[in-house]
């Protein structure tokens, strides 16, 4: 992460500029807008560090081991432990993030099960037309998922 200036600012000024930062992020209207803002604010290294920490929190919540997380994300065990400590005893920022993401995954999995049920009830027929296309697309989407 970037170094902090040796000339500290007052707590009141810090709170005002931090509130401004939060307001800017919460008012981002699109993914592109947020990406552009992060590109301007953070160095590539800082973006990687923050992304890895969020990924560590998500993988810990999904019950992955330290070894698995370390291999996949190429992070050290102390880094994983630091995120785990924040996840368990922090201000619930990581918990809220992971619960939101896991909730979205559960919704997606539910719709995928519904798609599978619809596909299984379709008549096989001669395998032509839109049914074949639909089966192929759903099969392709099913095996395209990331970890």
Brief account:
By secondary structure, this protein is mainly alpha-helical. Helix content is 73%, strand content 0%.
What does this structure look like?
This protein is an all-alpha fold and 147 residues long. The chain has a domain at 42-142: Orthogonal Bundle (Trp Operon Repressor, Chain A), CATH 1.10.1270. The protein contains 7 helices and no strands. The chain is elongated. It starts with 10 loop residues before the first helix and ends in a 5-residue tail after the last helix. The mean pLDDT is 85.
Question: Which terms summarize this structure?
Answer:
mainly alpha, Trp Operon Repressor, Chain A
In percent terms, what proportion of residues is strand?
under 5%
List low-pLDDT spans. none
The gross shape turns out to be elongated
Q: Mind summarizing the main beta sheet?
A: none
What is the overall number of helices? 7
List the helices and strands and how they pair.
Blueprint: H1 11-26, H2 31-41, H3 44-61, H4 66-73, H5 77-89, H6 93-121, H7 130-142
Helix pairs in contact: 3-5, 3-6, 6-7
């Amino acid at each position: 992460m970037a170094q902090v200036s040796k000339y500290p600012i007052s707590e009141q000024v810090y709170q005002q500029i931090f509130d401004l930062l939060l307001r800017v992020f919460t008012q981002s209207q699109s993914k592109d807008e947020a990406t552009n803002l992060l590109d301007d604010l953070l160095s590539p290294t800082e973006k990687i560090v923050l992304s890895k920490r969020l990924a560590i929190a998500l993988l810990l919540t999904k019950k992955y081991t330290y070894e698995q997380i370390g291999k996949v994300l190429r992070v050290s065990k102390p880094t994983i432990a630091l995120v785990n400590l924040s996840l368990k005893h922090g201000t619930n920022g990581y918990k809220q993030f992971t619960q939101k993401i896991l909730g979205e995954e559960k919704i997606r999995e539910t719709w995928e099960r519904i798609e599978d049920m619809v596909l299984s009830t379709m008549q096989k027929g001669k395998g032509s037309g839109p049914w074949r296309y639909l089966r192929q697309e759903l099969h392709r989407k099913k095996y395209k998922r990331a970890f």
